[in-house]
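pinging the channel bc i need a second pair of eyes. not urgent but kinda urgent?? the chain im working w is below, pasted from the shared doc
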Amino acid sequence: MNKFKTLGLGILISFFLTISSNADSIRIGTEGAYPPWNSKDASGNLIGFEVELANELCKIMKAECTIVEQDWDGMIPALLMRKFDAIMAGMSITAERQKTITFSQGYADEVASLAVMKGSNLEGMDTPEGINLSLGGSDVKKALKTLTGVLAGKTVCVQTATIHQNFLDSGDVGSVNVRTYKTQDEVNLDLASGRCDAALAAAVAFTDYADKSGKPVVLVGPTFSGGAFGNGVGVGIRQGGDDAIGKRDAKLLKDFNKAIDKARKQGIISKLAIKHFGFDASM
C-alpha cells in the first residue's frame, strides 16, 4: 500500500478511536468569575452552583467530566472551536445565541436587576416589581418609561457581551452611558467605589457580593426576565451535524436534558439553588 495512503488511514483510524474513547468524557466550560453561579475559592478551585450541578449531572449521565475555566467573552467561540463540549456559565437562553449554538432545557431562572449603593438618589423609584419583557403590556411600558427618565445621563456599569449589556444598548431605556467590564467582579468593585451610578446584572450576583463583602449594595427598580433577558439558564452545546462529532453533540444534548429532568425530579437542583442563592431558582 502507498505509504501516504497508509499514513492517511492511520490518522483516520486514530481520529475515530479518539471519538470512541472520549464518548463518555465531557469537558464543560465555565467562567469562574460570576458568583454564586460559578467562581473560585482562595486556592483557585472552581466552585459555585453550576460547578456542583455539573458534577451531579455528570454522575447521572455516568460520564467522566472535566470543568474548564474560560473568560466570558470567549465562551461561545471556545465551544465552537471544541475547547470543551458544553457551557455551564450562567448563560441565558436567548434567540440571538440560538443562532450559533443550541441549549438544553433551562435548569435555573435568572432575573436581572439594577443595583446602586445605599443612599443613591435612584433608590425608591416607582416601578412594578417583576417585569417579563416577553409579555409586554402597561406594566412593561411603565417600567421602561420610568427607567428612561431616571437613567438619563447616568453611567450604568455592566459585564461585556452579556444580555444585560444588550438590554442597555437596545435603546429600551433611552440614552444611557454604558461602561463595560471584562468580569462581574470588576463591575461590583467599580459600583462600590462610586465609578458607576448603577449596575445591571443577575440580581443574585449583587446580593451575593453584598453578603460576602459587607458593602451596602441594594437592588432598585423592577427585576427583569424574558425578551432580551432570555428564558432561563441552560447548558450551551454545539449544534449537531451529520458527521461523527455532530452526532455526538446531538446525543450530548439529549443526555443533558435527561439528566436535568432527573436532577429536577430528585430535588437536586432545588437543593443546590437554595444553598447558593438562598431560594429555589430551579425551573
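so The two ends are 58 Å apart (CA to CA). and The first helix runs from residue 3 to 21. — does that match what u expected or am i reading it wrong
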